[in-house]
Amino acid sequence: MAKVITNARIIDGRSDIKLGYLRFDDRIIAAGKMSQFIAQDDDQIIDYPSKIVVPGFIDMHCHAGYGIDSMNGNADELIELSAKLAREGVSGVLITTMTQSSQAISKALESIVSASERSTNILGIHLEGPFVSKVFHGAQPVDEVKDFDLNLMRSWQAITGDRIKAITYAPELLHARELEQYCDEHNILKSMGHSQATYEQATEATADRITHLYNAQSPLHHRNVGLVGEAFLNTSLMTELIVDGVHVSPEAVKIAYEIIGSDRLELVTDSMEARGHARWYLSIGRSKSDSS
């Protein structure tokens, strides 16, 4: 028996059906306009007038939420987090770590692996740091920032069973080209961020994407357009953008959209423990933050 959502607005990324239907069981069977809908005897009708049906969201950059942090090293908590994200419409997530001691990162990675074995919407790991800039470290603890260490990276990839799918790094750091080569060999997305790279240094990199555009990176300046300029001008780069009304102004969002376009922008949450709470003083890793 199939279920059918009727009288809803169906948006699938390619088309926008103002009044449509969606037939599915464990997979989508068919979608179309209500004017073309033919009910079948075993259909279970779910009438959704004035509702919008979209594909599940994929969050490429999520640290935490609902009082749960990826760096706590607790797999059961991460499974709980993934279930709560699913209720928000997030059907896939890269659980994101942050710069801490090598031992703390290893422990966090072990817990994410354990959780991913029991949660289908944990798609992998985004390693944010520790190979980032000490100038644009942002919430990353500066005392744990380091240059790329190939042996350390190998050990983390071994712990995860190749579940590291993306890494945020500063392309101006020592051994950055070695990092890029390793990522290419292991199908890891290379994301420039937490970086003071000049435009020239950014163009020399072989990155695939930009981490949270505008935030914790060399800004757009008329004498050197920095990492932001590289995001604007390099049409091969995907670009993260946090559209929460706090990290980036509405005007900056509009500029990014007009220049980069929807095909290259990835909306991410970069969320921390305070997600899901009205006002809590919580942390991201070791860094305290006021969620008000």
Protein described:
The protein is α/β, with parallel strands linked by helices and 292 residues long. It has 2 domains: 2-53, Urease, subunit C, domain 1 (Roll); 57-268, Metal-dependent hydrolases (TIM Barrel, Alpha-Beta Barrel). It is built from 7 helices and 17 strands. The strands form 4 sheets. The protein has an 8-stranded parallel sheet with strand order 6-9-10-11-12-13-14-15, covered by helices on one side. Helix 1 (75-87) packs across helix 2 and helix 2 (102-116) runs parallel beside helix 3. The longest helix is centred in the middle third of the chain and has 15 residues, at 102-116. 38% of the residues are buried. Its EC number is 3.5.1.25. GO terms for molecular function: N-acetylglucosamine-6-phosphate deacetylase activity. Keywords: Hydrolase. InterPro entries: Amidohydro-rel, Metal-dep_hydrolase_composite, Metal_Hydrolase. Residues 52-258 form the Amidohydrolase-related domain.
Write the layout of secondary structure elements.
Blueprint: E1 3-11, E2 16-24, E3 28-33, E4 44-47, E5 52-53, E6 57-62, E7 64-65, E8 68-69, H1 75-87, E9 90-97, H2 102-116, E10 122-128, H3 150-160, E11 164-169, H4 176-185, E12 189-192, H5 199-204, E13 209-210, H6 226-233, E14 238-241, H7 250-260, E15 265-267, E16 281-284, E17 287-290
Helix pairs in contact: 1-2, 2-3
